[in-house]
Amino acid sequence: MTTAEIYAEFAAREARGVSPTYERLAFAVSRDEELLDLLAALPPAKRQPNLLFGVVRLLGGPVEDPAAFHDYAVANWPLVEPEIRTRITQTNEAGRCAVLLPVLAALPQPIALLEVGASAGLCLYPDRYAYRYGEHLVGTGEPVIGCAPVNLTPPTRLPHVVWRAGLDLNPLDVTDPADVAWLDALIWPEHTHRRARLRAAAAVAAADPPLLVRGDLVDDLPALAARAPSGATLVVFHSSVLYHVPPPRRAAFAEVVGRLPGHWIANEAPEVLPYDTLPTPPDQARYSVVALDGRPLAWTRSHGQMITWF
Q: What CATH number belongs to 94-309?
């Protein structure tokens, strides 16, 4: 897929109906030969819309008007390019806990959580947040995460988490304002609710920081998993992480995690992991698949705003 096609698909399948600003901007970039030429000099993994848009927002550039975005990005490319090369999209979306919760709550308790691609670890606190599935409320406190359930009876309890740890090539620190600023820049412009949720979730994590380990998801996973307490169900999970990983390493990761005791929850785009069969998606929007131990269970939207149980 060409860079132009990546931006056009992002506009049509991910941003449409979710962020008019990014839908408009991504379509404009898909037709902007000057920006496409600049992006072509980057490694393929660094050309993605969220990374480009997030870096420009972090630097204080405009994203609402495509023409102003073009002028800023081109004029400031000597600043934009090194930030893109240095950073990765570490969207630490606590809202994804809402689509993980039905699976986590059904596993043998207590559980030891280990997140691969943990970023700042905000998804390691599914037991500390509250959830609203339609009119059904689970848990108390802030943030309250909304999720539209389809074909799903919402969970009635929160998981009992006795240990939480994260593995990331570049873990972020929720007590560091610069790291939180990057997480904020990755939130789409109109999403004030997600920005408020980030701050509330960061406050939860900062009050009881998780164990975050810098390391590789294949080479360093077994050693970190071995630190989980006995008597707890180990749950290795990840959300929108493996698309960053080359296919051979994805396969190696699946082999490693499959040998660990406990369970494996994946929340990834349908083409990222191999599944024998999947039902037809609800519509043309971009969906992920929640799977338990390699068995697909539900379609989900990227920020946890919807779950459609199979």
A: 3.40.50
